[in-house]
Known about the structure:
The protein is mainly α. It has three helices and no strands. The chain folds into two domains: 1-41; 43-97, no CATH class. 52% of the residues lie in helices and 0% in strands. The radius of gyration is 27 Å and the shape is rod-shaped.
Amino acid sequence: MIDRVAPNEERKHIRRSVTLLIALGVILLVAGWAANGWKKSVGVKDIHVSGAHILPAKDVMTLADVDRSQKLFDVDVNAIRHRIEANPMSNLPQSRVTSRGS
Length: 102
């Protein structure tokens, strides 16, 4: 014999499930909004130069021309790499410019 759930109990179960899904959706929306706000507030903190043998690190920094007031996710690492590689004194076949979030 199959046990049937009373109609009132079934409605309560559906109502709880819907309420839980709505609450989960609201939590995900709030978390996404907070993460987006955090991402926009992360700025350029440190700049490290390694492997600079021909040009001193300070000259590479000058060529890179990174605005420290700029937000990290707005930094165009390809433009920085091209500025460094465009200098004939750098004599670099390729430079590597990366960004890391804190």
